[in-house]
Write a structure and sequence with these properties.
Helices cover 8% and strands 47% of the residues. By secondary structure, the chain is mostly beta strands. Strands 1, 2, 3, 4, 5 and 6 form a 6-stranded antiparallel sheet that branches. A hairpin with a 3-residue loop joins strand 3 and strand 4. The chain is globular.
Amino acid sequence: MDYKIRPERVTIRTIDRHSLSGKINLGVHERLSDLFTKEQRLFIVMCDVTFDGGKGGTGRVLFVNKRHMVWAEPEAVTR
């Protein structure tokens, strides 16, 4: 199995109205949506997570259940 590190900054909103911002490793997936729709794993691993306006911070890792997500939004990439 190939393993790649391709971090993508993302914000996730949960069913209990928490906002989580951090990095998700896309790895071999082309798009963020592939991770949610094509991946069979139930949990998404996020790192460097902040939530609800700034709590958390560098180095914080969360395992987030995909069933508890309302939406996910990638951060805009500026070039």
